[in-house]
Amino acid sequence: MAARVTPEDDTPKKATLFWRDGRGRSGASTLMGTISETAFRAGRGDIVIGDGDINNDTLTRQFRGRSDILLPPPASRNFDAMKEWVSGAFDQCIGKRNTTILDLGGNDTMPSRLAEELDLMTMLKDSDVRLVVWSFMGTGFDDIENVYRSFVNGPFAKAPRVLFLNGGVGQTSTDLDAVQRHFETDSRVETMIKAGAITVTVPYLPCLAQMEKANISVFEALEGARPSSGTAQSIFWRAMTRKWYERLMENIEMTSHPELFL
Fold this sequence. Notes:
Layout (H helix, E strand, L loop, with lengths): L15 E6 L6 H14 L5 E5 L6 H5 L16 H18 L2 E5 L6 H8 L2 H7 L3 E8 L3 H13 L7 E6 L9 H9 L2 H8 L3 E5 L5 H6 L4 H5 L14 H18 L8
Parallel strand pairs: 1-3, 1-4, 2-3, 4-5, 5-6
């Protein structure tokens, strides 16, 4: 995925917008942060992250102190403030021809309302900005239904779309084949796949809840960083996280669509 790009890559840049889709508590922030950090470490210097999820600042905390890549958060969650914030992020994406990742959170209709009122699809086309929708869902009926409704009726219904099938949300399972079967035998997921959506099965990370409580990101766990409390990590976190990360990266590589993952 991101390792295909190096600092010496002289390919002309095309502005790209990655738009988060799906309900809250679907693993979106963790996955977006992990994929972004992988790209940074592979030499990508054109990525900007906009964390507009005021109720869950996971991305902001992961990239704290890195003002060069992290957009300032919106002033509030009211519609006008969010509209101004998205407009600013979009202007920067166009002006600097960068890759912008926007996380507006889940559990409400705000993202769709913003996209429709700002007529983002027209703006993207007129400004020659590539759009990729990252849809995150757990195994629950409502998780899938939320993404499916967005796929059918949302403003980005025809955009390239990645479905992150998270086996760690809902009825958790360590059997990735079973997780994949659970999703891909669902008629709604089947419809999206037939329309061209790409799937990535996400493993279950048993220690994620404890890591979040300790304010430890995936890469910090991999590196053995101390939690903000100053206490040592659990001896299990590093090994669990390494297994999870390696399998996730393998599953992304298996899609054969690196352009959909930064």
